[in-house]
Fibronectin type-III domain-containing protein
Amino acid sequence: VKTFPCHTDRLKLWFVFLSPDPPSAPRWLEVVNISRNSAELKWAVPERNGGSAITNYIVEKRDVRRKGWQTVDTTVKELKCDVKPLNEGSLYEYIFRVVAENKYGAGPPCVSKPVIAKNPFGMGAFIIILVYAVSYNIPLIFVLLFHLGMSLEPPEAPDKPQVDDITANSMLVTWNEPNDNGSPILGYWVERREINSSHWARVNR
């Protein structure tokens, strides 16, 4: 904001010129739907548009274990966006942010709370399905199998492996058992990679 005085014989006037700027941050960003591989975001328009109409929104996502943000879409015109794909399971927790942009540039972001990419079926949904099944004489075994199939998740990652007893031809690799997320772990894949290579090869059968 710039002000300039203007003097007259009777009055002293001040003219105020507003410098155009990027918009302020969008408001009330929410994750309104979350599933194993996608999330639906909604938000409200920024409080200030910076003196120019908002042209688009920029949507980004970030795995909370990582520092870098990934661009989802830079051309969003509405106040909502479907974010996909996501990695499922309790190991993957995401935060999202949305930036408004006008012809003068992009403004500050509005950042969501962390959410876990998982199927939304919980106990409430199970009770609704159960009542529906009883009303229509659907065998309960089908309801239980359906709920288990929608609720179970893959196991979490093991801790960092420990390497011992190294020889010219072998080594002993050990690790702690991870959380199985409600289903017994059937086995493990062990892979190795040479330092100067990007290729991983499985070493167990």
User: Anything to note?
Assistant: The chain has three domains: 27-116, 121-154, 155-205. Residues 121-154 form one domain.
